[in-house]
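in:
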């Protein structure tokens, strides 16, 4: 709610082009953050997958 109010104030003061640019930058920043978090989660999963493979190798051996 608060973010949309800020956007509406920005668009009233500076014009649609600038508010669109700010929205685009914020959206890109959010995407960047979410991708970074996803990579961290994926990295953690990869570690667990490696451990599972090691366990499987030990069981078969």
């Amino acid at each position: 709610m608060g973010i949309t109010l800020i956007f509406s104030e920005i668009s009233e003061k500076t014009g649609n082009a600038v508010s669109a640019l700010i929205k685009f930058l914020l959206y890109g920043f959010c995407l960047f953050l979410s991708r970074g978090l996803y990579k961290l989660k994926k990295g953690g999963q990869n570690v667990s997958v490696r451990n599972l493979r090691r366990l499987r190798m030990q069981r078969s051996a």
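note: The two ends are 58 Å apart (CA to CA).
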